[in-house]
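stage 2 :: seqdesign
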């Protein structure tokens, strides 16, 4: 499995555990409504700043995201 595949699956897992839609998460992060969908569909990866905001939103540390 490549990195983008793993990252997208992990993001989807954590988002679903939180019980929020990709659209709602995107908008809560101040991004376009398709932002998280694009990451989960391996069309893009977030910037480092974007990744930190994603972790904060999900309530996990970057280390926990990768564990």
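stage 2 :: out
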């Amino acid at each position: 499995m490549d990195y983008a595949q793993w990252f997208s699956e992990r993001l989807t897992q954590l988002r679903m555990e939180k019980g929020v839609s990709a659209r709602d998460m995107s908008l809560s992060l101040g991004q376009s409504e398709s932002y998280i969908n694009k990451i989960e569909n391996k069309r893009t990866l977030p910037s480092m700043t974007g990744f930190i905001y994603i972790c904060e939103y999900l309530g996990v540390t970057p280390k926990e995201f990768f564990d």
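stage 3 :: structure notes
- The helical segments are 3-18, 22-28, 35-40, 48-58, 62-66.
- The longest helix spans residues 3-18.
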